[in-house]
Specification:
Elements lengths: L20 H13 L19 E8 L6 H9 L4 E3 L11 H4 L5 E9 L5 E8 L6 H14 L8
Parallel strand pairs: 2-3
Antiparallel strand pairs: 1-4, 3-4
Length: 152
């Protein structure tokens, strides 16, 4: 398929169940990081940008949460910037996230299709905020909480 000026809903090889290996990895890594019992699905799309991972995320919570409550919680999260203005351009795109270490959350809104649901748009520079930086930040957090001892 043509990649320029296009979006390709196919990254890596197709598996027997119709999902791609990239989609399987996204599900497996999320379960490993958050909770093996979490239910999720994904369609990974190749988009012609130089840098960046972008996700349209829908989350269903056990208890009610408003978009305003989610904004406040996310504003206090380390490494997260909330840019959520309900106006044209009031969100962050992959181009704007390029060169930044933070993850940007925008378009936070209540999802009426599920009970206690939120929808949001999330972008980051995948070359800076990837597995290596995440590993370092997790280790720093563990050391800061005295759950891991620093090497001598």
């Amino acid at each position: 398929k043509q990649i320029a000026f296009n979006c390709i809903p196919h990254i890596d090889v197709f598996m027997e169940d119709g999902f791609t290996k990239e989609e399987w990895k996204m599900v497996a890594e999320t379960k490993k990081m958050l909770d093996p019992a979490i239910k999720l699905t994904a369609t990974c799309v190749r988009v012609p940008v130089f840098v960046g991972h972008s996700e349209s995320v829908n989350i269903e919570f056990e208890r009610p949460i408003t978009a305003d409550e989610a904004r406040e919680i996310l504003r206090d999260a380390p490494g997260v910037q909330v840019v959520d203005k309900r106006e044209p351009g009031g969100y962050v795109t992959p181009v704007e996230a390029a060169g930044e270490f933070d993850t940007f959350v925008s378009r936070i809104r209540e999802d009426a299709t599920v009970e206690n649901g939120l929808a949001m748009w999330i972008v980051s520079d995948n070359l800076l905020k990837g597995a290596a930086l995440n590993t370092v930040q997790i280790a720093e957090t563990l050391i800061g909480r005295n759950l891991l001892k620093a090497a001598a």
